[in-house]
Structure formats: structure tokens, C-alpha cells
Write a structure and sequence with these properties.
This protein has 250 residues and is an alpha+beta fold. 42% of the residues lie in helices and 18% in strands. A hairpin with a 3-residue loop joins strand 3 and strand 4.
């Protein structure tokens, strides 16, 4: 069975969460409360209420009991969210991980969303509510993850890069990650991965590359490049083996 991401088209800040910001969040969300935490994170428990009107699905009202583990380095790190009311099974069909935490989207997309709105309320609105809205629809039999899906694991990461940057092939993603893993003055002089035969600085894709340059660090992009390259090289090796089997011996 293939694993899947919930796909939410949905970034990375430089500030650390402060008690005042957490107090404002709890004040804006009175059904949430601070739970016992540790020096590295805050834990918030409470009820997430949905009351969403949609022309296609009508008025969706629902409530979910959730727990949010917020790293004190937020928004640099992504919070972890759990559904603790046992409203749905913690399986791949409901986009959960093996530790029962929720798969809210791909890391790239979640980081982009957080960058664009680096507050706890922004995280809830951009990343958490869409997930539970899709779950509510699924539980009511009105749809299955209406925002689309990505495969889990490396396949899903590659798919996300392909769709975000409007590319077609994994080797283009590898070239893109090579650009993102370098300083702008070097990356901009490289040939654009879109196939236009122009350097990045003179291609329309440059704007998207600039938009995502600080979503993750150059080191993180380089790590993705290494992983994808290994997969691509293994695929090419397997293709060569298949070709050799098709060539008749003389």
C-alpha cells in the first residue's frame, strides 16, 4: 500500500516563541489551555471547533480534541499536532504517522506556510484547520482530502518539488536543489532546470526560486539533493539492467 501526504498548498522565521505570544494565542483560543511542558517545548490541549461554509459542501460544523506540541524554537521548527479524542483511526487513510501525530502536509509546504505567517494562530489557520476540515468532510462521507494528496516518504517530497516549481522530471528537481543549496550569486548563474536554456537569473522561474530560498536552509536543500540523487542513480542502474536483459546474446 502506498503512503500519502495530505497536500495543502501552503514557511521559516527567525524569532523564537515567547510567553507573551503564547498567552495571546491562548487568549484568542479560549478552548485551548497550557498543559505540563518541558524546557524545550510548550504543550497545548483543547478543542478545535470548525464552522465553515462552502458552496460545494455546505456548512461544516465539528469539534476535535487536539494536542499541539510547540517547539520553543517556533517558527524555525514545525509544531506537532495530535488528535486525542479518537474521532478517527490513526492510519494512512487518515494521514497520520506511526506515532499517531498528524501528517498536515509536506515539510516544504508547511515551512512555506509558517514563513508566510509565523504566528501560532497563523499555523492553526494555514496548516491545522485545513487538515481537520478535510477530516470532517471524510467522516461525513462528503469527500476524501479535498485539498489533494502527496505520497509519503521521498516520493511525496519529490512530487511536491515537481508541483511547486512546475517541473516534470526528478533530474530537474536535483538541478533545482543544487541551485537552492548554493549562495544566490552562484545559483543564479547556473542553467535553469526548467529547460529554457537560460541561466536562472534570466528565467521566469527565478522569482519562485527566490521565494523559496529561505524556506529551508542551503544545507537542508543539499541533503534533499543527495537523497534524490541516490534514488535517481539507483533507478538509472535498474533501467540499464532491464535493457541488458532485452539485448539478445550472440
Amino acid at each position: 500500500m502506498q503512503q500519502v501526504y495530505l497536500k495543502i498548498h501552503q514557511s521559516l522565521g527567525v524569532i523564537h516563541i515567547k510567553i507573551k505570544e503564547l498567552e495571546e494565542f491562548l487568549e484568542n483560543n479560549p478552548q485551548m489551555s497550557l498543559a505540563p511542558s518541558n524546557p524545550n517545548e510548550y504543550v497545548v490541549n483543547g478543542i478545535l471547533s470548525l464552522d465553515i461554509k462552502n458552496d460545494t459542501y455546505g456548512n461544516i460544523k465539528d469539534k476535535f480534541l487536539i494536542r499541539i506540541v510547540i517547539p520553543k524554537s517556533f517558527p524555525k521548527e514545525i509544531p506537532t499536532v495530535y488528535e486525542v479524542g479518537n474521532r478517527f483511526p490513526k492510519t494512512l487513510d487518515f494521514h497520520t504517522f506511526s506515532d499517531s501525530s498528524l501528517c498536515l502536509g509536506s515539510p516544504l509546504s508547511l515551512r512555506k506556510q509558517i514563513k508566510d505567517n509565523p504566528t501560532l494562530d497563523g499555523f492553526i489557520c494555514s496548516c491545522v484547520i485545513p487538515y481537520f476540515y478535510a477530516i470532517a468532510l471524510k467522516l461525513q462521507g462528503k469527500g476524501s482530502f479535498v485539498f489533494g494528496e502527496l505520497y509519503h516518504g521521498v516520493e511525496g517530497l519529490i512530487q511536491d518539488y515537481l508541483e511547486v516549481f512546475d517541473l516534470k522530471y526528478i533530474n530537474q528537481v536535483i538541478e533545482l536543489l543544487d541551485i537552492l543549496s548554493q549562495k544566490p550569486n552562484r545559483g543564479n548563474k547556473k542553467k535553469c532546470p526548467c529547460g529554457c536554456n537560460r541561466i536562472v537569473a534570466k528565467c521566469s522561474l527565478h522569482k519562485k526560486i527566490v521565494e523559496y530560498r529561505d524556506v529551508m536552509t542551503r544545507k537542508e536543500y543539499a541533503t534533499d539533493k543527495e537523497i534524490f540523487t541516490l534514488i535517481y542513480d539507483k533507478w538509472k542502474e535498474n533501467q540499464m539492467k532491464k535493457r541488458r536483459k532485452l539485448i539478445p546474446r550472440v
